[in-house]
Amino acid sequence: xxxxxxxxxxxxxxxxxxxxxxxxxxxxxxxxxxxxxxxxxxxxxxxxxxxxxxxxxxxxxxxxxxxxxxxxxxxxxxxxxxxxxxxxxxxxxxxxxxxxxxxxxxxxxxxxxxxxxxxxxxxxxxxxxxxxxxxxxxxxxxxxxxxxxxxxxxxxxxxxxxxxxxxxxxxxxxxxxxxxxxxxxxxxxxxxxxxxxxxxxxxxxxxxxxxxxxxxxxxxxxxxxxxxxxxxxxxxxxxxxxxxxxxxxxxxxxxxxxxxxxxxxxxxxxxxxxxxxxxxxxxxxxxxxxxxxxxxxxxxxxxxxxxxxxxxxxxxxxxxxxxxxxxxxxxxxxxxxxxxxxxxxxxxxxxxxxxxxxxxxxxxxxxxxxxxxxxxxxxxxxxxxxxxxxxxxxxxxxxxxxxxxxxxxxxxxxxxxxxxxxxxxxxxxxxxxxxxxxxxxxxxxxxxxxxxxxxxxxxxxxxxxxxxxxxxxxxxxxxxxxxxxxxxxxxxxxxxxxxxxxxxxxxxxxxxxxxxxxxxxxxxxxxxxxxxxxxxxxxxxxxxxxxxxxxxxxxxxxxxxxxxxxxxxxxxxxxxxxxxxxxxxxxxxxxxxxxxxxxx
Length: 600
Known about the structure:
This protein folds into 2 domains: about 5-210, Distorted Sandwich (Beta-galactosidase, Chain A, domain 5); about 210-600, Glycosyltransferase (Alpha/alpha barrel), CATH 1.50.10.10. The protein is globular and about 75 Å long. The protein has 15 helices and 28 strands. The protein has about 600 residues and is α+β, with helices and mostly antiparallel strands. The protein has an 8-stranded antiparallel β-sheet with strand order 6-7-8-11-17-15-14-13. A 4-stranded antiparallel β-sheet has the order 1-2-3-4.
């Protein structure tokens, strides 16, 4: 497979990736960051998968059931046809809460003729470190490994269990199912019960999606992106993952391969801001609770990232027995970046706290805790904003005075002032206003480079950086300010490559980046739109949307030459920025229609 042509299914506890041909090639259970059961994505030979094998005469098409996370793969040779409806159960329990078991269900729907298929069922537990043995029992098929760690995995099915394990051909005459679960079932599943689970899960997603507003343009793209962001949220704690995978490379054959199954404060806060704007209040509320639970001590500095169960230590290891995606080693689990200092996270978090208090000031939980966090953030920023850091792109070498970090320190204080006014806590305002002005002036004095006529990546440098485009959206500078307009133009000239953006072009710890960071292109499109180049922005946007995979999903990066998707997948960052752009274009069209109606 040349592209990341996968669909994601999930239930806000874990997720799985199904290939364009209907093969299950990535799944970690019982939770997102657990070790893999299927990891063919990271090693073609030993990773493990659940493949569906049909004759070459079959045409295979894939789509999502509209407004849901149920993935439908259609197999037909003209006369014989069937569908697989893949999902992970999620629905409301009668007594309250949600049923989200650590299970993948593959429901086979008979359509016509006498379709035949084989199954290549090959779970490889614990990242395929040791041998996984599979046994046929009376009620299920069990797989187990006794390597470094003991683990088991269960398959329940309406099909012949021996035929499955032996890879024999089977004929489909009626609906059937495969239920893949981390736990042994108390009650044996039946096709009827599994169909009920499918319908309940479908209804859950339809109900959830109905809360997303309808827009004039790009409605299906906004809906699919919103569902994808929801799929990357972890219901138990409120954490939001950066992506569902580990070690998918930014460039094939290189070493920029990271584990993204964690909660970055920056990424998650940006996601929550957008999902909150779409009206999904509970996701935002749970995330704020996640933050409140992370900060028990008033002087405790935030890490840039945490485990989904609030783990603070995310030790990075390499799995040297796995060959990596398309041979791109190393495969990593854990992420050493948790130790880094990045000063921008405080501003991004304060922005979300302000948004939630602004939107729901009469209906906000944890108001007192959030005020405590606000005061703590300003205290930390006032003491540390003059220090260098690793920046948004997590340079692993020396610290610098990154412009984006400084702008977000300003955002932290600016939003804290606004929060203080909402909560009518005016005692600290005078002091905070002085600090806010000091930071703002410092940025104007040091980040602007008259020679390149732009705000640059860091103080004293000539290098340009796409993150600086966010100065406007965070309210630091007006869109039509000549300094901002010339910064957008300079970034376009220097960092755009056939409409796709480099994050930056100066060498980092691993040399010159050779793929486009998808979110940066969305930021650039948004900036063009804001400075008045709306037609050009929309043309770029439509072109960028055409680079998504067959289901409208984006990863972290896009290859400049081939336009193939690269990096971890699906990427929360990319989808939140897609939604922001789409809403801007849609709102603009609505405004123009209103003006046209008034003129008439």
